[in-house]
Amino acid sequence: MEYYLIVAAIMFFAGIYGFFTRRNTLAILISIELILNATDINFAVFNRFLFPESLEGHFFALFSIAISAAETAVAIAIMINIYRNIRSIQVKNLDDLKW
Known about the structure:
Elements (H helix, E strand, L loop, with lengths): L1 H20 L3 H26 L5 H31 L13
């Protein structure tokens, strides 16, 4: 169990680091996906080791994956719209969209 949790923690902290250090909105989206995948690993691992006869953790993980897919589709659509308006997807240029 410890190895799975170590992998999930590394993925989680890599996502946090990427979220705070990247300037590109696509890289920020990938970092958010890393964070969500780390939580999916935790759902599956805790379900497997604490309640091996039930599947609630796996269903939570599948539901989270579905939500992540929908979130990614919406975020990419927003990025395409931003690129059409200001020809850049850098975070520092998003101030142009305020007014």
